[in-house]
Amino acid sequence: MCEVKLKLFQKLLMTSVAASVVAPVFAQDTLKITVTGTRSERSVEDIPASIKVIDLDDLRDQGNTDLKSITRYEPGVSVVDPRTNNYGGAASTGNFNIRGLSNNRILSIQDNIRLPAGFYGVGYDYSNANTVDYFTLKTIDILKGPASSLYGSDALGGVVSFNTLTVDDILEDGETIKYEFPVKTNSANSSVSGAARVAYRDEESGWSYLAVLSKSEAKELKPNGADDIYVNDADISTTAALLNVNKQINPSNKIGLTVDVYDKDRDISRASGNLSKGFYNYTKQDSEVQQNKNRYIFSWEYDSIDKTNFIDSLKAKVYAQDYETKDNWNEFQDVNRFVPIPRDVKSRYKLKDNSKGIDLQFGSNINDHKLTYGIDYSLTSNEYSQDKFTITNGVTSHIYRRTQYPIKRSPDTDTQRLGVYIQDEVAYGKTDFIYGLRFDNYQLNANPDSTYLNYCKSGSDTCPVADLDATSLTPKIAATRNISDQLKIWGQYSRGFRAPSWWEMQASQTNISGGYQVIPNPDLKPESSDSFEIGLRGDYEKFNYGLTAFFNTYNDFIESNVSKGTATVEGVLLDVSTTDNVSGAEIWGIEFNGEYNFTPETEGFSVIASAATQKGTDKENNQDLSNINPYKLVAGLRYTSLDERLTSELIGTYVGKATYDGVAPYTPDGYYTVDLLAKYKVNDQLNLSLGINNIFDEEYYQYQNIPYRATSDSIKQYREAGRNIQAQFKFTF
Questions:
Q1: 308 to each of 23, 304, 366, 374, 478, how far by Cα in Å?
Q2: Among 48, 170, 398, 592, which lies 20 to 30 A Cα-Cα from 574?
Q3: Mapping DSSP to helix (H, G, I), strand (E, B) and coil, where does residue 302 land?
Q4: Predicted local confidence at residue 1, as pLDDT
Q5: Contact yes or no for 309/360 (Cβ under 8 A)
Q6: SS3 of 58, please?
Q7: Which residues contact 499 (CB under 8 A, 6 or more apart)?
């Protein structure tokens, strides 16, 4: 089987080469600078990896309001939006899917600091990337493929790096102070959001300040044709603040302090069951979800002037990050259209993820070698608890379905991460090589208390507590070859790994009325991957393009609900399951993007295009992977005026039908959408943007946004938005 896949991968490579020679009209953002791919500053065109850099202009000009809209034109990338209709789906947009991998197999970082770990389970979905405010960002970097040689665990399928604004991103050379007031609105979710930014710099004293305050109000996204279904009544409010203070002590040394606060409240009235109007077999729930994240970062940057020291540069960070999610819901109605059963159930979930750590990165230039090396350490404490009580005919009880509340389905857990890495960049003639190696130690230690032990009892025995002490060595080798002044070929091999999360290791549940029990697994092993990529980049007078073929293999995939037989608890026979390493997978595909300008200058008309196709197979049963996105093709026409004050884009997106051959409740058909975007610079103080999305009002579904529990009655609520309008302006003075 492996030989067959390798032959197929060879065909993919040959196809990619041929396509690049015959039709080199697809490109990427080759002029943008990023540090995500190599931890050192490089232009995108010089990085031997697939990476997308979305900068501040992209965030503003395309009317993007969340991650789902930001990635809608990017091949091989999607963002899952579970909707608040999904029972317990407290998180809105934020779960990345890159080349068929999602959840905690994609590492999300902000300013090189891990965002709170995603928490995914049956009925619960708390995304880690859902705690970032877009008004405080300068770039979002999306690195596709394993990156554990630089970032350690969780970078199995890729890295999403959110980079926060600094004073230098707002003020140009010679400017002292600037005020910005961006405002956005979108009819799809009735959102209105805005921010105030103030940047100040005193060249003489070396002090600089940046303050950002943002506010957003929105409703749940309204599905196209929602008049024939019940739509959740959701009010979503977000407040964020950023304060960045820096002191340039001397030309080589700068210190800084960053305080970042993020609060999101969602008041949701959601319905489940038979949602078609005229039927009343449904449960109605009121839910209030609160997310709070606070970050405190002290930084020191050193940059040698003469580059004669052994250490030419140093970036040091000491940080603390506190995160908490509270989900309070009231199930106030359970109506059966044949036998009414009134009920009032209240519940509160609380999830804590608090971390602190240090990140040290050094840079040295020795002869022709550019070395990047460092060490990072973090300690994260997790806690998950649930309170529940029932009120029926005025009687209050903390016992519901034979379970005594409050409960903890997992013990409080501490996770220690220690990583040491080194990377060497060296050129031999027309070929640039990058070698990287990282060592990681991952320790997970449970701290069970009486609440957890009382809940986890099975007869007279307590559930096992699962600790973990794992190490990993992850190498990378990559090269870029200049075939000519206009054409480059690149390739890389990299290894990735993901240690089991605290929830996967520790989760337990005994549901006597439901007839099942979930037990921890102390023998879980980390997941691992091997990735091979080859690509071509062309940069010509009128066009540029990028084309990539990849083949990834994954081992020891961690899956939940693996059967472990039965057990008798309180005289009731229960089905027992756990989380276990059960299978591996192979994923391969092709991606391309590009732009063709009809004139050598930046003004005038240009054609833009991107596409991606991928295929994934479960090696255990030779079955299609369910989380592989259908193929996507994006093509558009862009116009830029002679004075570059007006830019407009007409963009069409076509997505094919999913080819998953397993058991799925609903597999949507392919679809197409057409968007019209325009931006206009009125003057130096005022920028305007306007967009009409889904011009032809197409009714469609995104494959990854349909939950497994969807039925023929409930599927309509997962339709995407119909025709909608987005508008924004930014006033600067």
A1: 47, 8, 10, 20, 28
A2: 398
A3: strand
A4: 44
A5: no
A6: helix
A7: 153, 154, 442, 444, 468, 470, 472, 526
Number of structural domains (the chain) is: 1
Residue 560 token pair: 């939940």
User: H helices of 588-656, where?
Assistant: none
Place of tokens 């603040």: 241
Q: In whole angstroms, what is the distance from residue 347 CA to residue 327 CA?
A: 8
Q: How confident is the model at residue 671, as a pLDDT? A: 92
The pLDDT, as a whole number, for residue 706 is: 75
Highest mean pLDDT among 22-31, 483-492, 554-563: 483-492
**462 phi and psi, to 5 degrees?**
-95, 155
- Dump strand ranges (E) for 619-670: 623-624, 632-640, 646-655
* DSSP code for 220: P
Residue 320's pLDDT band (boundaries 50, 70, 90)?
Answer: very high
Provide the domain limits for residue 463.
Answer: 2-732
Contact status, residue 193 vs residue 216, Cβ threshold 8 Å: yes
Please say if the pLDDT value at position 384 is more than 80. yes
Helix (H, G, I), strand (E, B) or coil at 702: coil
Using DSSP bridges, classify how beta strands 604-618 and 543-569 pair: parallel, antiparallel or unpaired: unpaired
Sequential DSSP letters for 435-461:
EEEEEEEEEEEEE--HHHHHHTEETTE
CB neighbourhood size of 274 (10 A): 16
Confidence class of residue 684 from pLDDT cuts 50, 70 and 90? confident
Q: Is 663 exposed, middle or buried (0-12, 13-18, 19+ CB in 10 A)?
A: exposed
pLDDT at residue 655 in the model: 92
Kindly report the CATH number assigned to the domain that includes residue 227. 2.40.170.20
Task: Please state, in angstroms and as integers, the Cα–Cα distance from residue 275 to each residue in 85, 223, 229, 232, following that order.
Answer: 11, 14, 6, 11
Give the 3-state secondary structure percentages of the chain, helix then strand then coil, rounded to 5: 10, 60, 30
* Separation between Cα atoms, residue 104 and residue 120, nearest integer Å: 9
Give the chain's radius of gyration (CA, Å).
26
- CA–CA separation, 560 vs 583, rounded Å? 12
Identify which of 70, 261, 32 has the alpha carbon closest to the alpha carbon of residue 726: 70
Query: β-pairing, 106-110 with 158-164?
Result: parallel
pLDDT at 579 (0 to 100): 85
Question: Mean pLDDT over residues 208-212, rounded?
Answer: 97
Query: Phi-psi region for residue 560, left (φ > 0), alpha (ψ -120 to 50) or beta?
Result: beta
CA dihedral sign, ordered 32, 37, 41, 46 = negative
Examine the pLDDT at 54 and tell me if it is beyond 70. yes
| Cβ count within 10 A of residue 192 | 12
pLDDT score, position 12: 37
